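chain below, 204 aa
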Amino acid sequence: MGKRKKEAKKKSINLGNETDQWMSDLPESLWAVPLSNLSLPGSHDAMTYCLDKKSEVSANGSKLLQLLDKHMHCIVHPIILRWSITQDLTVLEQLDAGIRYFDFRIAHKPDDPSMKLYFVHMLYTTVEVEVVLWDILRWLKNHPWEVVVLAFRNFDGLDENHHKHLVSCIQKIFSSRLCPRNVSLLRKCSFNILRFLIHFGQIL
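prediction:
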């Protein structure tokens, strides 16, 4: 990472120290504004910061890309890696920096008999979905009035059982912190509620 990039990252983290509780500091008048009318800072392909040279090319990606990576790995893989990474802050650093909407692309690796789920953007992350959700829960416990929207999408390689496993993990980890669909105002959010948006034929 170059000097300029390191300085930019440091600046972002420092800004996070001022914005990690920005929703808590909103004027009371905005607590009556529907959540759908609030502009939430978002993170596109939020988990791509943890892609590295060990990350495998997605099986649901371009067949040409898979072929090139297989036969010209030393040349092609570093290029794919650069294309794939859109974030350099961790999910906790993004939360501290004020991000409240996360774009999560979910995947299950082919030929993997386990139920482990990963994030994907051309490449699979090495970190598992469940690990990141636990990290977010721990952050929320220290930020009881922040509302976070997690948008789960893509679902590369997931079948019905994998999807049920994902929903089960979300419910197990966040439990009563999940925001009911009929809650639309910040002032109606209970203590440390987390709101989820699931794109897979259903919304939680």
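Residues 1-6, 8-16 have pLDDT under 50 and may be disordered. The CA atoms of residues 46 and 103 lie 6 Å apart.
thats it, cya
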